[in-house]
Design a protein that fits this description.
This protein folds into two domains: 100 residues, RNA polymerase sigma factor, region 2, helix turn helix motif (Rna Polymerase Sigma Factor, Chain: A); 67 residues, Winged helix-like DNA-binding domain superfamily/Winged helix DNA-binding domain (Arc Repressor Mutant, subunit A), CATH 1.10.10. The termini are far apart. The chain has eleven helices and no strands.
Length: 182
């Protein structure tokens, strides 16, 4: 049985309430989804909570996934939306625990790609749709076709979001270079 057919069979079983099938679908998505959550939230605990909440939401909404649609892009979209909801939440703005080196290392050093505070702040300042597109494409190294599938837009739409995000990031990054060199 081809991989697509096997996934379709798992999706059908999960839609019918088979938890084992759902766990098998979720398995390959764990690492990229937690990396995305950490890149968006910069907090291992919040990222883990966001992933778990997204997994629960996806399980409850399995019937929303069309039988012929791939699971991972659909699930990654749920993770991205969960991270957006966390960032919008009241407690996110009020209570912030400082990052610790040990906590950051707990997700396989996924913060390494955003070492610079200037880059991290610049990416965080992007609108949600552009931030997710940039993180999916550059941090998770997904092709634009997958970024589009995750975001529910065309490949050209994903390319446009990434391009607009990069255009917004350039001034912030140039300012950081000037202050670092000056």
């Amino acid at each position: 049985m081809a991989a697509d057919e096997a996934e379709r069979a798992l999706v059908a079983r999960a839609r019918a309430g088979d938890r084992d099938a759902y766990e098998r679908l979720l398995g390959p998505a764990v690492r990229p989804a937690t990396r995305l959550a950490f890149a968006m939230l910069h907090d291992p605990s919040e990222a883990e909570d966001a992933f778990q909440e997204a997994a629960l939401r996806a399980w409850r909404r399995m019937k929303n996934l069309r039988p012929d649609s791939p699971f991972q892009p659909w699930f990654m979209g749920i993770v991205a939306n969960q991270c957006r909801d966390v960032r919008r939440g009241r407690w996110w703005r009020i209570i912030r625990v400082p990052d610790t080196p040990a906590a950051a290392a707990s997700l396989d050093n996924t913060a390494v790609w955003l070492e610079g505070d200037d880059l991290r702040r610049a990416v965080d300042s992007l609108p949600h749709d552009q931030r997710v597109a940039v993180l999916l494409h550059f941090h998770l190294d997904l092709p634009l076709s997958e970024v589009g599938a995750i975001l529910g837009i065309s490949e050209a739409g994903a390319k446009t979001r990434v391009h607009r995000a990069l255009r917004r990031l350039r001034p912030a990054l140039r300012a950081g270079e000037v202050s670092a060199n000056g």
